[in-house]
Amino acid sequence: MTGLAFRSGRGHDGPPVQNSTVRLIVANVARVGGSRRRRAARLVAKPAGGTVAAAGAAHFDPLSFDRGPSEPALLDVTIGANLADTAHTYGAREALVDIAAGRRWSYAELRAAVRGLATGLLGAGVGAGDRVGIWAPNRWEWVLVQYATAEIGAILVTVNPAYRTRELEYALRQSGVALVIAAPRHKTSDYAAMLADVAPRCPALREVVLLESRRWEELSGAPADPAALAHRAAALDGSDPINIQYTSGTTGYPKAATLTHRNILNNGYLVGELLEYTARDRICVPVPFYHCFGMVLGNLAATSHGACIVIPAPGFEPAATLRAVQAERCTSLYGVPTMFIAELGLPDFAGYELGSLRTGIMAGSPCPVE
Description:
Blueprint: E1 3-5, E2 22-24, E3 28-32, E4 35-39, E5 43-45, E6 64-65, H1 79-90, E7 94-98, E8 103-106, H2 107-123, E9 131-135, H3 140-152, E10 155-158, H4 165-175, E11 177-182, H5 191-198, E12 207-210, H6 214-220, H7 226-234, E13 241-246, E14 256-260, H8 261-274, E15 282-284, H9 292-303, E16 308-311, H10 318-328, E17 332-335, H11 337-344, E18 359-363
Parallel strand pairs: 7-16, 9-10, 9-11, 10-13, 11-12, 15-16, 15-17, 17-18
Antiparallel strand pairs: 1-18, 2-5, 3-4, 4-6, 7-8, 13-14
Helix pairs in contact: 1-2, 1-3, 2-3, 4-5, 8-9, 10-11
């Protein structure tokens, strides 16, 4: 993704590979003694037409290693464990603000709500590895579903709010979604009607839950079951797949990218490190949650640092975004160039108090200096 953080980053260069005859037999990257090394990696020089034995003195068995910085260390925990750590440390601090809904959560409250929904999903028969779809614009329920599925090892399938029936059916069928949580509608899209249309053609789909429905209230209002959640958490690992995101499908249907706890948690965490996030930061996230920009660089960057997620509106509205920055004293703002241009183009732009901003991310397309 083309992007620009409003801070200079850190990088490193490594030596190029010199010998094209060298085969890397095992390449599981792990941290050993504070540096990145390849665990049990053997490098074998194999002459053309020869055998490994014929290589003789060219056979090497020692661990290989990557050159470069080893700090900050990668997080080797699940998303649920990371949220638990953050809630333990910053329980009273504000974690989530949904301006349109008029609701706020501290970290202690957010984790309690996540664990309640996670218990509700367990009661609905959602198991580890089951696919749970989320089809909604940016709203507080989206965040709860993101963390509740991670809590129990279900795989969150993020569905683009702009999908039409054909794309929706493809994503649900191709990923094997068992349960969909969806907004009843968004803008001109009647999600409930579209789901009713495609459901008979999605053999894995067992249940559709509409936000604001009684069924949603049952799932999200369930009291947390600590024993059941602890049992499930004990079986989870950072390398487990936890998210399926669909690409734009530049040459055909959208393509599914499967991501693990470790993938997306460290992506968000390291972006937060680059932007020097702390628990004092408040991140305005007008970019969509269904995309990694919103759910990873926004939500996970925030919760891995104890920062606050601010949702200015369900969909992008330039004025609503700037009002949110002003009212919530946001320190960071995200967007693609078109969004920033729309904000700068507001007739009353000069009237907004935006002095709290110190950083942010512009990404998604070439970022003009202007």
